[in-house]
Structures are given as structure tokens and as C-alpha cells.
Amino acid sequence: MSTDTIVAKRYAKALFELAKEKNEVAQAEADLQAIVSSIYDNADLQKFLSHPNIDSSKKTAFLDTLFQGKVSDAVLNTVSLLVDRRREGILQEVLTDYIKIANEALGQAKAIVSTPIELTEVESQHIAASFSQLTGKKIQVQQVINPSLLGGIQVRIGDRLYDGSLSGKLQRLQASFK
């Protein structure tokens, strides 16, 4: 594990503990996501924050003007602390680790469901209920349309892939013939 990965987990854990104390776990995730998206969607802001010759106090002051009152103080302070310590490059990792920590603590998991056509709301709810029963966690479904699957679905929860797609079955059949 790299040093940045370890550091990102520490910041994510600290932010989670603060958010948990204030009962703002979901709000902190949304706020952190908003800041990370804003930074990564704006190339000029990325350049500004990563520029080594700009003083970190100017960077944090700029972030305060951008996000003050729009995100929680705990999230803004965490991001400012990262910028002060010249670790703005690990913001995305902090977000990813925060989501993992929050989901684990709250007994939730995100399922990325790939299908060749769009699912109805009823089908999404059925998939969430089935995988909730299988994993013992509350499942949030995120749908991805992938026409190359031909039929069926693929469900990815964390590191696990449940492949019930037609293309997956054909690949397994082809491998068994070899």
C-alpha cells in the first residue's frame, strides 16, 4: 500500500468520525462528492490547487469563498487541511475511502448493475432486495447500460462480480470447450 493510500484512509476515517458525531454521514459524503466533482470538472481549478508556487493559504481562502455555506464545515475543513499539507492530490482517494467506510459502518453497499437495456424501477428494486438478502446489507443500485452483454445482468458489489449475462455464459461455455 502506498503512503498516499494510507493517508487518504486516515483522513476519510477522521471525516467519517466527525460526520457520525453530528449525524451527517450522508451529507458529508454528498458535500465531499460535490467538492471533488467541482475540482476535477474544472481544469483551471485543478491547476490552481496543484500549482507549487501558490501559497496554500491563498488556495484555502479561495476554497472558502467557493464552498463556504454550501458544504458542511467538517468537509470544508478537511479539504482545507489537505490543501494546507499539500495533499490535494489525494482528494479522490479520500472520497472513495470515505464512501467505503460509511457504507461498511451503515451496513450498506453499492451495486453496479450492468444490463443491455434500461431496467424498470420494479426490476431495480427486485435486484436490490435479492442482493440485500444475499449480502446482508442494504443495496443501492446504480445502473449501467452495456449492450455488449446481449442479455441478462452483471452485478458488481465491491470486489465481487455476479455474472448472469448471456455474453458471460457464452465465454464460460467457450472456455469449457478449450
From TrEMBL:
Where, per UniProt, does this protein localize? Cell membrane; Membrane
Where it mainly occurs, coarsely classed, is: membrane
**UniProt xrefs under SUPFAM superfamilies:** N-terminal domain of the delta subunit of the F1F0-ATP synthase
Does the entry feature the keyword Cell membrane, yes or no? Answer: yes
Query: Is Transport one of the keywords?
Result: yes
Coiled-coil zones: 11-38
CC terms in the record's Gene Ontology section:
plasma membrane; proton-transporting ATP synthase complex
Q: Name one Pfam family in it.
A: OSCP
The molecular function terms in GO held by this entry are: proton-transporting ATP synthase activity, rotational mechanism
The UniProt entry lists membrane topology as:
Peripheral membrane protein
Keywords associated with the record: ATP synthesis, Cell membrane, CF(1), Coiled coil, Hydrogen ion transport, Ion transport, Membrane, Transport
UniProt similarity note: Belongs to the ATPase delta chain family.
Q: What does this protein do?
A: F(1)F(0) ATP synthase produces ATP from ADP in the presence of a proton or sodium gradient. F-type ATPases consist of two structural domains, F(1) containing the extramembraneous catalytic core and F(0) containing the membrane proton channel, linked together by a central stalk and a peripheral stalk. During catalysis, ATP synthesis in the catalytic domain of F(1) is coupled via a rotary mechanism of the central stalk subunits to proton translocation.
- Official protein name in the record: ATP synthase subunit delta
